[in-house]
Amino acid sequence: MRRILLFILTLTALALTLTMLNVSNTDNAATASNTMTGATIADSNADITPHDSTNVVILGDSQSWIGGDNCDKPRGWNKWFKDMFRPASCKSYARSGATWTNTPQTIVNTEENTGVLADNNVIFNQVKRLEEALKNGSQVQPQLIIIAAGTNDAWFGKQRPQRFYKTAAEVCNENGAAITKKQPSEILTLAEAVCYNCTLLRQLCPDAMLVLLTPTYITKTPDSMVDQAAQIIDDCAAMLGLQVIRMDKHSGIDSAKERKTLRLTTDGVHTSEEGARRNGTIVAKQIDRMMRQEGKN
Length: 297
What we know:
Blueprint: H1 2-37, E1 55-60, H2 62-65, H3 77-85, E2 89-92, H4 123-136, E3 144-148, H5 151-155, H6 168-172, H7 176-180, H8 190-204, E4 209-213, H9 223-240, E5 243-245, H10 247-250, H11 255-260, H12 273-293
Parallel strand pairs: 1-2, 1-3, 3-4, 4-5
Helix pairs in contact: 3-12, 4-8, 8-9
């Protein structure tokens, strides 16, 4: 009788052990499934057909500038974008320290390259440099223009005090030709700068798709400042009928996490190679989708 009881107890213990193993395996599978479900755009392995008939121009600040004029340096998102998008050409006119917003002292100056915030270190002068390059034949007519800026507008409020004074609705309802008649020294708000420069680009490259990238979060200024800049850019894009990618929402850069441990940035502002690869992949996939939807692939 004791042997029978011992045998029953042994079988019961074995059954409980197997049940626990099955639960553990199920939990692990569920965790893996949840991880895949929550994967960001950058984690997708979907392939992109080469855009070998698309010439790309990039305007922006140091986030693009660190990728190099030829978009071949790994700490810049544009290097990874170029590698994945595989365009016919990809040229960056970005400058470190650039802002969308002009100052009362801004004039046409395509030569100055300060590398820091300055009156003439603005997207407007990158547009003028592009214009010069098209005229002298050093730049082919682009089919895609990406403008990745807004970080310095959000960050340096003292140097750009009027940046948030106007909304997209107040500015973009104006006749496009009328706003471009203004002097660059009159373009003192972010909304005006986006509308002004995008209208100039439309006149310069009428067949090009314009895509605006909002800034990512940084550790040097409150997230609310980046949110405000990103929303103005987004609103302007909507009113102008342009494409926009909300990098503040999609990049995965979390200012609180970067303050604790730098991973996607090297200094709380500029991307690490990992952060650049992630952002470049996001931009390539998003623009590939946009072009397919518009029949431009």
